[in-house]
């Protein structure tokens, strides 16, 4: 008869104790998104930024849609500069009214 080490069907192995040596790690709860409260309510800054982003995206899409017509890049640059100046003027007016001038 063949010896066990000569038999190719015999696998040499050792018996391992199945009791765990350490308790499994408990995953920590996920941290809340910094833009949301613990209750899942978005912050004012997060909502404002999202609205401003959508608004500027829509303005850009409207401006780009008009590029194929009489609008040129120079005309759009002037329109943007005029809009920025109007915003600065309005902000200055609001600040003056708050100071009581």
UniProtKB/TrEMBL annotation:
<feature type="compositionally biased region" description="Acidic residues">
    <location>
        <begin position="7"/>
        <end position="17"/>
    </location>
</feature>
<feature type="region of interest" description="Disordered">
    <location>
        <begin position="1"/>
        <end position="41"/>
    </location>
</feature>
<protein>
    <recommendedName>
        <fullName>PspA domain-containing protein</fullName>
    </recommendedName>
</protein>
